[in-house]
Design a protein that fits this description.
heterotrimer, A alpha/beta (159), B mainly alpha (444), C alpha/beta (160), B: 444 residues, mainly alpha, Cytochrome-c3 Hydrogenase, chain B, three-stranded antiparallel beta sheet, 8 strands, 11% strand, C: 160 residues, alpha/beta, Beta Polymerase, domain 2, two-stranded parallel sheet, 22% helix
């Protein structure tokens, strides 16, 4: 099926509405894969549990299989030894998929500028949202999550 | 006649590193005979972040943020352990109030650590509500930690020669009810887990380690105490003011997962006891006195002869950022050493007179900084997982020549492969959970 | 005093291999030559009066530009006497080697692997001497002073 988007035809109007609807559905049914390695995992736990309750934002269900997840939360420092594992996990996920870099180590490497750490996971996989902080507070995480939802809502939906 | 002989082959199974029960940073390759584990190869190092190399390349003060991230569930203990090691090397005494603060904050950290450990362990066995309860309690304690240190997790609260700032006003009044709330959560969890058939069956008799084996492997902490050895650094060689506290060392009998769970539960209760005692007996500052014994407020300690035109400045109230709360109070002297080698002056002095400013820079500036004498030191504190030791070699400059951290869960992980042999595949999860593996500390 | 007892016993039994014995900051320290490490450790562990049954820590220090360059540091602890002891053994050369203590303490296994990984010190008689924190493809030993901290050897991704 070929859909010409952006035109003033009824077909274009239809796809834009469809895009919005799918985006709306997708942004509130985020199945995350928490790739937890380090300190940030503690804040991830805090965010996921009852105090901050990430479930309110439609992202309450972590899936521990990459094939069932659509958002990869990379939480904590990625060492050179772990980098191939992360890439494998990313490749195992089905499209459409998004990646959140949680914590400054995943954004840039943070203050672990050394032989053992990856200087930002965007050197090995594409990243959609960066949540800086060492570790980010749960409020920051929730803000990052909402930014991701906005991005999902506004993007062109792949079917 | 056909042969009825069956060919039995072992199977290899790889668990982790990205597996929910492996906490993201450990890989276990097990050889299985049916459900029984014949051998287990534990692979670590997925969170190696060059802690020791980083410490060598920075000044002593710059090591603190890295020590936070060793055992990131109880960062305060690491902070104080490192600070105490450097202090021992320099021969610095810290004020009594500071020692009390260190005890209080260490024990709060220990409770947080055990809460996380038991919560995660219970969650992995299916008791999800316990996890939620524990994290809820941890959140209350983190609010206290945040109030004092300014951060929830990566606190960097320790300093060579003291702590960053004093306890906030009214801390004790907020701390006591929180501890009571934590107690009630512990009671609730105890009701949910201790006599729970499923939990009991999964934990009892699983992951056994004998006393001799544990000592042979260098295991310390709750893991050792569950096997019946009452070794605790807080009792064996008391540091800070632990010798003035009244507390018991819980000891298990069977050396299995269930005993480790019981030991951790009881340790939390003992930690609460310690915090309560310390809050009752903590001395008040300030401690700086003039020759006649009158108390000197830090704000009038400036060199009067050199004030000249800056006289107006001194009497002015210096506005200080809210993030520096605790460092500017008159109690600063009560939590910081008197030794000028390591002492950062109170903030209102740094902002208002040149001596304090210079003193401040001498301690923190590149090329100056804290300079312990040549020598080496090993200082051990009781971390949440066992003996946390810092071995520091100083060459007399402002950078440590070598910093070695003795990670408490490293020997436990070394023994894990042996503990797992003969148990069932499903037993990996509770046994590994009872180790309380913390990646930052294990791999550094 | 047990401190002097430990030092006296070592002096008496291993006088020839003892390089130095002192007590700094209340911590007994002995420096012995590397050939005697296994015997000294065995004596310390099995002597009924000393009973250093814990190998608390095993690490190494790289004194770059000094000869001998390396030093392996053992921290022993006696549960019965509540006594600590530091044993050091200097090692020279670029391919240093020392006897493994795995036959005495099972816990020495991983500690020695880590020292091998970080410093490249080989342990004679170690059953499984391979890298532990880093990956097999890694070249060099990062805690040696001549290894720059930012020299990365990535397995995947750009070489930065």
């Amino acid at each position: 099926m070929e859909i010409v988007s952006g035109g003033s035809t009824t077909m274009g109007f239809f796809t834009t509405r469809l895009d919005k609807m799918i985006g709306w559905a997708r942004k509130y049914s985020i199945f995350q894969y928490p790739f937890i390695t380090a300190c940030c995992g503690m804040e991830y736990m805090a965010t996921a549990c009852s105090h901050y309750d990430i479930d309110r934002f439609g992202a309450g269900l972590p899936r521990f299989s990459p094939r069932q997840a659509d958002v990869l939360f990379v939480v904590g420092t990625i060492s050179q030894k772990l980098a191939p594992v992360l890439v494998t996990i990313y490749e195992q996920m089905c499209a459409p998929k998004w990646v959140v870099a949680f914590g400054v180590c995943t954004c840039t490497g943070g203050f672990y500028n050394d032989y053992a750490s990856v200087p930002g996971i965007d050197t090995i996989i594409p990243v959609d949202v960066y949540i800086p902080g060492c570790p980010p507070r749960p409020e920051t995480v929730l803000h990052g999550l909402m930014m991701l939802q906005e991005k999902i809502q506004n993007q062109k939906q792949e079917l | 006649m056909a042969s009825t002989e069956t060919i039995s082959k072992t199977m290899f199974l790889n668990i982790g590193p990205s597996h929910p029960a492996m906490h993201g940073t450990v890989r276990i390759a097990v050889e299985l005979d049916g459900e029984i584990i014949r051998s287990a190869d534990v692979e670590i190092g997925y969170l190696h972040r060059a802690f020791e190399k980083h410490c060598e390349s920075g000044s002593y003060t710059q090591c603190f943020p890295y020590t936070d991230r060793l055992n990131y569930v109880s960062p305060l203990i690491n902070n104080f352990g490192f600070a105490a090691a450097v202090e021992k090397l320099m021969g610095i005494e810290v004020p009594e109030r500071c020692n009390y603060i260190r005890v209080i904050m260490s024990e709060i950290s220990r409770i947080c650590d055990h809460l996380t450990s038991i919560g995660a362990s219970a969650m992995e066995l299916g008791a999800f509500s316990v996890f939620l309860y524990m994290i809820k309690a941890r959140e209350w304690l983190w609010e206290l930690v945040e109030e004092v240190t300014g951060a929830r997790l990566t606190v960097s609260y320790g300093r060579v020669g003291g702590v960053k700032g004093d306890l906030t006003e009214g801390f004790a009044e907020r701390c006591r009810p929180t501890l009571q709330k934590v107690r009630s959560v512990l009671k609730e969890v105890d009701d949910l887990l201790t006599h729970n058939r499923i939990f009991y069956d999964r934990m009892k008799g699983v992951g056994f380690i004998a006393q001799e084996d544990a000592i042979e492997h260098g295991i310390t902490g709750p893991f050792l105490r569950a096997s019946g050895v009452a070794y605790d650094v807080r009792k064996a060689s008391p540091y800070f003011v632990y010798d003035r506290m009244n507390f018991d060392i819980p000891v298990g009998e069977n050396g299995d997962n269930f005993d480790r769970y019981l030991v951790r539960m009881e340790e939390m209760e003992q930690s609460i006891r310690i915090v309560e005692q310390a809050l009752d007996t903590i001395p008040e500052g300030p401690t700086n006195v003039d020759p006649e014994g009158r108390v000197i407020e830090p704000s009038v300690m400036a060199d009067l002869g050199k004030i000249g035109k800056t006289l107006g400045l001194l009497t002015n109230e210096v506005l200080i950022e809210p993030t520096l709360q605790g460092s500017e109070k008159r109690l600063h002297a009560a939590v910081y050493t008197a030794s000028k080698q390591a002492r950062i002056p109170p903030k209102e002095q740094v902002y208002s007179n040149i001596e304090a400013l210079m003193n401040h820079f001498k301690v923190v500036m590149y090329g100056h900084g804290i300079r312990p004498p040549k020598g080496e030191v090993y200082y051990a504190v009781e971390g949440a997982n066992g003996e946390l030791g810092f071995y520091i070699v100083s060459d007399g400059t402002d950078k440590p020549w070598r910093v070695r951290c003795r990670p408490p869960c490293f020997p436990i992980m070394a023994a894990l492969g042996k503990i797992l042999i003969g148990s069932q595949l499903a037993d990996i999860v509770p046994t590994f959970g009872s180790v309380n593996m913390i990646g930052g500390e294990l791999d550094r | 005093m047990t401190e002097t007892l430990t030092l006296a016993k070592i002096k008496q039994a291993f006088g020839a291999s003892l390089i130095e014995a002192h007590s700094q900051l209340g911590h007994d320290t002995v420096v012995i030559s590397k050939s005697a490490i296994l015997d000294v450790a065995r004596m310390l562990k099995t002597d009924p009066e000393l009973q250093y049954n814990y190998l608390m820590d095993l690490t190494a220090v790289d004194y770059w530009k000094r000869n001998p360059r390396f030093e392996v540091v053992y921290h022993l602890y006696s549960l019965a006497n509540n006594q600590r002891l530091r044993v050091k053994a200097p090692l020279g050369g670029n391919e240093p080697e020392i006897d493994s203590l795995t036959s005495l303490w099972a816990g020495a296994n991983w500690f020695e692997r880590e020292v091998y990984d970080m410093f490249g010190i080989r342990f004679k008689g170690h059953p499984d001497l391979r890298r532990i924190l880093l990956y097999p493809e890694f070249e060099g030993h990062p805690l040696r002073k001549d290894y720059p901290i930012t020299k990365r050897q990535p397995l995947i991704g750009p070489k930065v």
